[in-house]
């Protein structure tokens, strides 16, 4: 009789499911198009990059992804025809801004997941959910735990600061747009206080536009962080704004750029290099502040 031992069903897959799943059947989507950077970075970190068949043109992390994967989307637009040629079984994007792209792909029969997380806990949960989606729950949980431990280490270092600086984070300059929720959280973790906490709670950029830029002068930040998505931060232009010479950050030359891929993507980069950059700036400010008191 033919030996069919290898065809016996295997259980224990997908969280100890009681339903038998053939061992040869791959778990989850096998051809994924990533419309933003964070799913690409996360899947590479989990060792699941072979599932990716297309990426966003704004992807910079990891660097090898740009060499290995075709670029088929921007943030507000996508090459839908090129995406369809890749025959994806899942497209992953972020936020209401990509709603039109998602709708068009759905109309062409592509399954789409649009995440909409806006907090540090949301980013950690995103890593766990994406891992579960591709059958890598254990690796994703370990990775999220590692990210969380890194944040806690930075939080503990910040607790030793002699003073917490007040920080204005600018996501765009014309019109001025303040930082999103996870940015404000990372500023707190790194030892600072966002001067517009009420706006950070607003999920949409249009809700974080400053109607009166003079309000920044009145809130007197000690540090200004700029991350103008898609273009270089110009501290000299910020310092030249009417009345801004009176701001402590401008007076003391505390205007710093954080590259947008490090902080404005709601993925692992923000929880590692992004918060690390904020912490470095805050720690250096604290040293200068102490020196000035001596």
TrEMBL record:
GO BP terms: namely: cellular response to iron ion
Q: Which domain of life is it from?
A: Bacteria
| Gene3D superfamilies referenced in this protein's UniProt entry, alphabetically | Nitrogenase molybdenum iron protein domain
Q: Which InterPro entries does the record cross-reference, listed alphabetically? A: ABC_Transporter_SBP, ABC_transptr_periplasmic_BD
Domain Fe/B12 periplasmic-binding: start-end pairs: 31-286
**Disordered: region residues:** 1-26
Show the ranges annotated as biased composition (Basic and acidic residues). Answer: 1-10
CDD domains reported for this sequence: BtuF (cd01144)
Name-wise, this protein is Iron complex transport system substrate-binding protein
Q: Which organism is it from?
A: Pseudoxanthomonas wuyuanensis
């Amino acid at each position: 009789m033919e030996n069919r031992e290898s065809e016996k069903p295997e259980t224990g897959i997908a969280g100890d499911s009681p339903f038998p799943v053939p061992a040869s059947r791959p778990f989850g989507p096998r051809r994924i198009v990533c419309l933003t950077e964070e799913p690409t970075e996360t899947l590479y970190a989990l060792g699941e990059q072979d599932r990716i068949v297309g990426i966003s043109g704004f992807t910079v992390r990891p660097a090898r992804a740009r060499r290995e994967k075709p670029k088929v989307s921007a943030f507000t637009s996508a090459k839908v025809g090129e995406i369809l040629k890749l025959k994806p079984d899942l497209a992953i994007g972020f936020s209401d801004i990509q709603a039109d792209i998602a709708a068009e792909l759905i109309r062409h029969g592509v399954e789409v997941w649009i995440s909409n997380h806006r907090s540090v806990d949301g980013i950690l949960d995103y890593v766990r959910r994406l891992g579960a989606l591709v059958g890598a729950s254990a690796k994703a949980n370990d990775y999220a735990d590692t990210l969380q431990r890194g944040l806690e280490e930075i939080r503990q270092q910040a607790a030793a600061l002699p003073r917490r600086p007040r920080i204005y984070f600018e996501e765009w300059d014309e019109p001025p747009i303040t930082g999103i929720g996870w940015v404000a959280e990372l500023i707190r973790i790194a030892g600072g206080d966002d001067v517009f906490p009420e706006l950070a709670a607003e999920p949409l950029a249009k809700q974080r536009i400053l109607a009166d830029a003079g309000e920044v002068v009145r809130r007197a930040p000690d540090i200004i962080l700029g991350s103008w998505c898609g273009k270089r931060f110009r501290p000299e232009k910020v310092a030249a704004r009417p009345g801004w010479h009176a701001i402590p950050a401008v007076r003391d030359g505390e205007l710093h750029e954080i590259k947008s891929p490090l902080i404005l993507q709601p993925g692992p980069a923000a929880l590692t290099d992004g918060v690390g950059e904020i912490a470095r700036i805050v720690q250096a400010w604290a040293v200068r502040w102490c020196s000035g008191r001596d």
